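Hi all, a correction to my earlier message: I attached the wrong file for Probable dual-specificity RNA methyltransferase RlmN. Here's the right sequence:
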Amino acid sequence: MIKKDICSYDHGQLKNEIEAMGEKSFRSRQIYEWLHVRLADSFDEMTNLSKKLREQLSAEYEIREVTLTERQISSVDPTEKFLFRLCEGNMVESVLMRYSYGNSVCISSQAGCRMGCRFCASTLDGLMRNLTPSEMLRQIYQIQKLIGERISNVVVMGTGEPLDNYDNFLQFIRMVSDEHGLNISQRNITASTCGIVPNMRRLAEEDLQITLALSLHGSTQEKRKALMPVANKYELAEVLEACDYYFEKTGRRITFEYSLVQGVNDQPEDVRELTALLKRRNCHLNLIPVNPIKERNFVRPDSKNAHEFKNKLEKNGINVTIRRERGSDIDGACGQLRRRYTAVTEGESDEDICDD
Ligand code: SAH
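and the right structure:
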């Protein structure tokens, strides 16, 4: 029998499920609290429920497995990387970054990715599958439990394209910021997209307060196309219009991400074109010196060049920062830990298949 993914139901949906079992609605509040506040991994932990109800629950529902497989702790800064195993054996990685303002977790939204960005390790093997809301939530829950400290900020910038998994991503955002769960302020959540225009526009209309980050990476349609296949589908002009629409609807300033690749998009003309694109926009530009992956020969500009690039933009009135590198000693670039692991274990075992 296919078991239902109980941790993906929001508060109202769980209430309906539990009432349909003939239970009182306060039971659903108790169960929701076990799952999303006490962060239970099994129904056995739910000791204020009768044994019979726990048995009924585990016959019908599952708490989707997100199991720690590897934990890397950086020795250069307070960053940790976690590799989690999903029920059918796919791996996803998450990163914990400790800041003065709190603990931030970067989660994955898909196992693999089908967007094909040229410099990105997460997309090299394509998309395995979408993550469910529970699997996104439980990356955060597991880290919060492991470190015994509250997570206050979330970035959806791990493996995957959140807007290619729209419904699950949206449910995740609503649940992680829900007062009945971890209650993380939407203003402390950032989601990054490569620019799936219709879903950016949909997101603008969801009445959310999360920050939207756009992976820009090229200052013209042609340059973007050379780095990001998604640009074949959506023109830069439409992507920027969708950003403006998001700002107009939510009042949230867009963050533009720009992976700096030596000799590709770090030239004086790029400064000019970027300035023209961003000058009249109320936005922030985050430069990410590219993290070279061995499968491609992209080169990271040295720190001096990256700073010069930034200074020129700043002089032109652009609000710009260089992303501080974190955890450089622990498989820094997106998807690299997962890939290393997959390469090592490939073909080793027949993993059992998920219920659905
Ligand atoms: N699919 C989302 C999230 C991806 S990861 C998106 O495209 O925005 C978050 C950011 O890291 C994106 O801007 C992505 O383009 C960038 N990125 C991926 N691999 C990188 C690498 N090797 N070096 C620098 N930035 C990288």
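Sorry for the mix-up. The pocket of S-adenosyl-L-homocysteine is lined by residues 115, 117, 119-120, 157, 161, 192-194, 215, 257, 259, 288, 290-291, 293, 333-334 (CB under 6 Å).
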